Amino acid sequence: MKISRRSALFTAILSGLAPALMLASPAAAQDAAATPAPRAPLAALAPEGIQGNPEWQLALDLSTGGRVVIQLRPDAAPAHVERIKTLARQGFYNGLTFHRVIEGFMAQGGDPRGNGSGGSTLPDLNSEFNDLPHVRGAVSMARAESPNSANSQFFIMLLPRLSLDRNYTVFGRVVSGMEFVDRMEVGEPPANPSRIVQASIVADNSPPPPPGI
């Protein structure tokens, strides 16, 4: 794994452009800010059998005080959803921080190094760009310059940034607990980063950790 490729995963585009995620190199920045391809109308809910099914829901118990539930979308990003479920069930995300939180933009976490440079020991994923938009609450996979470099890091959108559509793989959306995402410590990195106390699949019935952990 190329450790350095994730060291500057996200920056805001300045000079009058709307903020957007961009990579370290100018070519990658141009790619990330490109106008997304036309999309077919998108259903607000996941298909029957997925929507509300606890096997397809991720729970993040945050140090900000509560549980965030994310509806996963295996219909749109099956490999990414399988990766998230695997890592959650391994306990990989437990204790990891949100190392980059930009107010009005997004909160990024899932890095065991806590600085944007790391990932899991599993192979990187091929992109699964889809029609799910980067609206508030959307959960998308972070990556480096290559479209096929997502691994374990992800970000939660605080406000819409549709310029990211079809450049990053959206694999779910927050369906409850967004107020706990909004409470995250802001910074790049934050002085006192907010943490994932526990990540679990809702079907596994893992109780929330005791307060204060």
Short descriptors:
12% helix, 8-stranded antiparallel sheet, 8 strands, globular, disordered N terminus, 213 residues, alpha+beta, Cyclophilin, single chain
Q: Outline of this structure?
A:
This protein is of the alpha+beta class and 213 residues long. It has helices at residues 26-32, 78-90, 178-182, and strands at residues 57-62, 67-72, 100-102, 106-109, 138-141, 154-157, 170-176, 196-201. The protein has a domain at 61-204: Cyclophilin (Beta Barrel).
Question: What does the model show?
Answer:
With 213 residues, this protein is an alpha+beta fold. It has a domain at 61-204: Cyclophilin-like (Cyclophilin, Beta Barrel). Helix content is 12%, strand content 19%. It contains 3 helices and 8 strands. Strands 3-4-6-5-7-2-1-8 form an 8-stranded antiparallel sheet. Strand 3 and strand 4 form a beta hairpin. Mean pLDDT is 84; it is low at 1-43.
Topology:
Blueprint: H1 26-32, E1 57-62, E2 67-72, H2 78-90, E3 100-102, E4 106-109, E5 138-141, E6 154-157, E7 170-176, H3 178-182, E8 196-201
Antiparallel strand pairs: 1-2, 1-8, 2-7, 3-4, 4-6, 5-6, 5-7
